[in-house]
Amino acid sequence: MKKIWLTAYSPLRFSSLFVRSCGHCHVDSTHREKKRVISYINFYWCVEGSGYFKKDDRYCRILPGDVWYMPVGAVHDFYPGEEGFHYYWLALDGEAVIAVEQMLQLAPGKKFCGAPPDELFQQILAGLRHLTPERRIEMLGIAFQILFRIAASPAVSENKHEKAPAVEARDLIEREFADPSFNVNRLAELLIRHRVTLCREFKKKYRISPSEYLKGCRLRKAVELLSEGKHSVKETAALCGFSSQEYFATVFQKEFGRPPGNFRDWDFALPEKF
């Protein structure tokens, strides 16, 4: 779902340089953008949540304060994080956009720029909705104030917010384990990694395979719920990502040597590996 608070597109496009569009919106984790190659320059400034933008052969995550820059010819391809993606965007068009990129020394991809200048974005949004030829330069001037903020932000390590694939995999497992359809194949797909490569990287870092870690997350949560005594075995299985009560009981019995029924009667301590 895409919730747009404000968005505006320029009705005047016959110029060597102009503000093409600007927007302020929020998308939930189910939203997917239409993939396309752009003929203008585009900026996404993250306000809350996170977004995953395609660069080369993998997706890079941006967080609040990050700006993602797409130059002319870039593939417009991103999806929101599980918590949704709240952002501003700004697009400039015209023959002179290449000169703008060169003048400001803008590099494609991510840059941390801090809190977005809300007032400047709101001025452009208001101006584009009632644009006249006389105000076109005014809107461009406000847009350049935003671009100068981006360009002037000190360069930081490209990996400031980037996580190693194994770390990102661990975070995804911990967030998605309750979904019965979530497995290592889906994990590799989300991270744009080959399954074998991802498993090797994960095991090297954590000395456990991602499938075992996923099982551990589910069992750890199951023990927590069973200890509370508020849910049946069937309900616990569903809440912890097991596809059926029978499969849950089988995994539980194999791991702990006892079935999950009457758990509260046990003298139980969770094994250290969990």
Could you explain the architecture of this structure?
The structure is a single chain. Residues 157-161 have low confidence and may be disordered. α2 (118-129) runs antiparallel to α3, α4 (165-176) crosses α6 and α4 runs parallel beside α7 (210-228). The longest helix has 19 residues, at 210-228. The protein has helices at 97-104, 118-129, 136-152, 165-176, 184-190, 195-206, 210-228, 233-239, 245-256, and strands at residues 2-9, 18-27, 36-37, 41-55, 58-62, 66-70, 75-76, 78-93, 109-112. It has 2 domains: 2-152, Jelly Rolls, CATH 2.60.120; 165-265, Homeodomain-like (Arc Repressor Mutant, subunit A). The strands form 2 sheets. Strands 1, 2, 4, 5, 6, 8 and 9 form a 7-stranded antiparallel β-sheet that branches. The chain has a two-stranded antiparallel sheet with strand order 3-7. It is an alpha+beta fold and 274 residues long. It is built from 9 helices and 9 strands. The two termini are 36 Å apart.
Q: Oligomer, anyone?
A: single chain
Name the CATH superfamily classification of the largest domain.
Regulatory protein AraC
List segments where confidence is low: pLDDT < 50 over at least 5 consecutive residues.
Answer: 157-161
Largest sheet: 7 strands, antiparallel
Q: What value does the average pLDDT take? A: 86
Discrete helix count: 9
The outline comes out as elongated
Structural class: alpha+beta
CATH level 1 name of the largest domain: Mainly Beta
Number of strands: 9
